[in-house]
Design goal:
By secondary structure, the chain is an alpha+beta fold. The protein has 11 helices and 12 strands. A 6-stranded antiparallel β-sheet has the order 2-3-11-6-9-12. A 4-stranded antiparallel β-sheet has the order 4-10-7-8, with no helix packed on it. Strands 1-5 form a two-stranded parallel sheet. β2 and β3 form a beta hairpin. α3 packs antiparallel against α4 and α4 packs across α7. The chain is globular, with a radius of gyration of 22 Å. This is HTH-type transcriptional activator RhaS. It holds the Pfam family HTH_18. InterPro entries: AraC_XylS_family_regulators, Homeodomain-like_sf, HTH_AraC, HTH_AraC-typ_CS, Tscrpt_reg_AraC-type_HTH.
Length: 303
C-alpha cells in the first residue's frame, strides 16, 4: 500500500484524484491559482489524499453526492448538491462517496496560493485575522463563492478568457473569504474603512497604460501599480469609478482598437489579433463576434 505523505503541492495533488480530468488551468498563464475539474466515479469506497498548503475549495459542476470525510480519525458526512462548497483542510484526509443523482457527477477543485491570501489580508489591514475558519465546516453555502468558482471553471475551459479576468476573480474571492470567514473580529474593521478614491488623473494614467500595452498580458498588479493602489483596492475602486471591471474595460478597448484597425488598415486578422493582445486569430474572432455580432472579416467587408 502506497504511503500518503502529510503534505503535497497543488501540482502533485492531481495524482491522488480518482476521476477523469475534464478541465485544467495548469498550462494557462494564470497567477496565484490552479483550477481543475473531474468526472468522478459514481461510487468511491475510499480515496486518501495528503494535505495542501494552498487554500483549496471544491464544488459540484454537475450531479449530487453523499460525501463522507475522515479528518483526524473522525468520519462525518453531508449530502452535496449544486451550489454547495466544501473546504479541503491542510491535513491528510480520507474521502468516500456515492452519487445521489441521475446526472453525471463532476467536481471543481480550486487551489489558491497561500501567499495571495496573505497579501490580500495585508491590503485589507486585517492584522492577525487572516486565518480562515473553514476547516470545521463539512459544507457551506455561499452563492457568491459558488458563482466565482463557476466563473473560474468556465474561464479555465475557454482559451479566449484572459489572465486579467482570472486575476480579478481570484483577488475578489480571496477578499470575500477573508471578509466573511476569517477568524476573530478584526475582519469587521474593513467595513468601516472610508472608501478610497481613484481621481481622474489616476484613471487617465491607468487607461493610458492600458492603451499603450494592449498587446501585453496585463495583470491586476500592473494596473494597480499605475493607480498607486493595492491590487485588492484597485479592482473594487476602478469598478466604482468607471462602471466597468478592469477585465471588462481592457476587453472593450482591445475590441475597439481591433475594429479601428480592421477599418483603417490592411493588416491580416492574425496581425490585428496579436496587436491587441489575443493569443490567436480564432480566440480573437470569438471575442469580436461576441462584441460586434459578426466576425472580423465580415466587419471589414461591411465597413
Amino acid at each position: 500500500m502506497t504511503r500518503i505523505p502529510k503534505l503535497t503541492t497543488t501540482l502533485a495533488y492531481d495524482r491522488y484524484m480518482a476521476g477523469q480530468k475534464l478541465v485544467s488551468s495548469v498550462n494557462r498563464p494564470w497567477r496565484h491559482l490552479v483550477l481543475r475539474s473531474y468526472l468522478e466515479p459514481d461510487e468511491q469506497a475510499l480515496l486518501e489524499a495528503p494535505g495542501l498548503q494552498d487554500l483549496t475549495l471544491m464544488t459540484l459542476a454537475s450531479g449530487a453526492e453523499h460525501l463522507e470525510r475522515n479528518l483526524n480519525g473522525r468520519w462525518e458526512s453531508a449530502d452535496l448538491r449544486m451550489g454547495d462548497v466544501w473546504f479541503v483542510p491542510s491535513a491528510p484526509i480520507s474521502w468516500r462517496w456515492h452519487s445521489i443523482s441521475d446526472e453525471p457527477l463532476s467536481t471543481v477543485h480550486l487551489h489558491v496560493e497561500r501567499s495571495l491570501i496573505d497579501s490580500v489580508a495585508d491590503q485589507m489591514e486585517l492584522g492577525g485575522s487572516r486565518e480562515l475558519a473553514l476547516s470545521d465546516a463539512m459544507q457551506f453555502r455561499d452563492p457568491l463563492v459558488a458563482a466565482m468558482l463557476g466563473a473560474l471553471h468556465r474561464a479555465a475551459g475557454d482559451p479566449a478568457d484572459s489572465r486579467l479576468y482570472a486575476d480579478t476573480l481570484v483577488h475578489a474571492l480571496a477578499a470575500h473569504l477573508l471578509q466573511h470567514y476569517s477568524r476573530g473580529r478584526l475582519a469587521q474593521r474593513a467595513l468601516t474603512v472610508p472608501p478610497e478614491r481613484l481621481v481622474p488623473r489616476r484613471i487617465r494614467r491607468v487607461t493610458d497604460y492600458i492603451r499603450a500595452n494592449l498587446a501585453a498580458d496585463l495583470a491586476i498588479a500592473d494596473l494597480a501599480q499605475q493607480a498607486g493602489l493595492s491590487s485588492f483596492h484597485f479592482a473594487r475602486v476602478f469598478r466604482r469609478e468607471t462602471g466597468e471591471t478592469p477585465h471588462g474595460f481592457v476587453s472593450r478597448l482591445r475590441l475597439e482598437e481591433a475594429a479601428r484597425l480592421l477599418r483603417a488598415t490592411r493588416q491580416t486578422v492574425l496581425q490585428i489579433a496579436i496587436a491587441v493582445g489575443f493569443e490567436s486569430a480564432s480566440h480573437f474572432s470569438v471575442q469580436f463576434k461576441r462584441g460586434y455580432g459578426m466576425t472580423p472579416l465580415a466587419y471589414r467587408l461591411a465597413g
